[in-house]
Specification:
The structure is a single chain. The chain is about 45% helix and about 25% strand. It is of the alpha+beta class. The chain has three domains: about 70 residues, no CATH class; about 100 residues, Tetrahydropterin Synthase, Chain A; about 40 residues, no CATH class. Helix 3 runs antiparallel to helix 5.
Length: about 270
């Protein structure tokens, strides 16, 4: 490069791209101002993410949050961005055959986050797909060993052995799994109708038991009252007077022909002397 000395002074900086293709931030800004963007490729990595730098298909290093520029000098530069934040994964509409041969559909949810992006990218093709398959297998194993009644009564979650295997398998590829839960159990239409009939019959039986219990208590109370009146004539007389008061309150006119003695002794008489 030939330059006029009068326009100087000039300073030349040589960059060996065989050592590192990364561009310093200040030089990257100057190239942008000079409209020489074709000399570089720019890759942003936002907070909460990790960028894996591949040069010619070889993993070189992990990039932190920021804007990263690399020289375009005939080498292939690729950046794979991995989200490090906690995420949820839903496995919806999975058909499972229970122990009593009822086919149900379940919705599963799990919380996870990537703790080692290098392992998560290099050991499996898609770590979220690997978690999806692991959850499928674990719940098939768990629910397939239970009857439909057990599943509905216990609101079953994944058993500890299956959950531990899921967490261990995912930890090997750099993924940490926290919560694993069974969100919904969806029954076939005819099975829902049968269960509704069963529940209705059970509630009706419970109502009949309660009704019989109350009738028994009422009869027992009446028997106790009769026993007290039989042993206590004064109590019996008070009951007679209460009956008389009730009758008098329901008639418009009460005619007494033989005096108050007849009113008290003859009108209301629950038993012979």
């Amino acid at each position: 490069l030939v330059l006029w000395t009068d326009a100087g002074p000039w300073k030349v900086t040589l960059i060996d791209t065989s050592v590192d293709l990364a561009i310093d931030a200040a030089i990257m800004r100057r190239l942008g101002q000079a409209r020489k963007a074709e000399l570089m490729s720019v890759h942003p990595v936002v907070d909460g993410q990790a960028g894996l730098l591949f040069i010619d298909g070889v993993l070189v290093r992990t990039l932190t949050a920021g804007v990263h520029g690399f020289w375009n000098v005939g080498r292939m530069v690729q950046i794979k961005v991995v989200d490090l934040k906690r995420q949820s994964l839903d496995v919806a509409g999975q058909e499972v055959l229970t122990k009593d041969r009822v086919t149900i559909r379940v919705n599963i949810a799990a919380e996870y986050r990537v703790v080692d992006p290098v392992k998560a990218v290099s050991m499996v093709k898609d770590f979220s797909e690997a978690l999806y398959r692991a959850l499928q297998y674990a719940f098939r194993k768990t629910l397939g060993a239970l009857t439909l009644d057990q599943i509905l009564e216990k609101k079953v979650t994944i058993d500890e052995e299956a959950a531990a295997k899921v967490r261990a398998d995912m930890a090997e590829i750099g993924v940490e799994v926290s919560d694993i839960a069974l969100k919904d159990v969806i029954l076939p239409g005819e099975m829902r109708e049968i269960l509704n009939q069963v529940v209705s019959a059970e509630k009706q039986a419970e109502a009949n038991i309660i009704r019989r219990r109350e009738e028994t208590n009422a009869t027992r109370s009446l028997l106790n009252t009769a026993r007290v009146m039989a042993e206590n004539p004064v109590m019996l007389r008070l009951k007679e007077l209460e009956a008389l008061e009730t009758i008098a309150g329901k008639v418009e006119r009460l005619t007494v022909h033989n005096g108050t003695g007849g009113l008290l002794n003859d009108l209301v008489k629950l038993r012979d002397s």
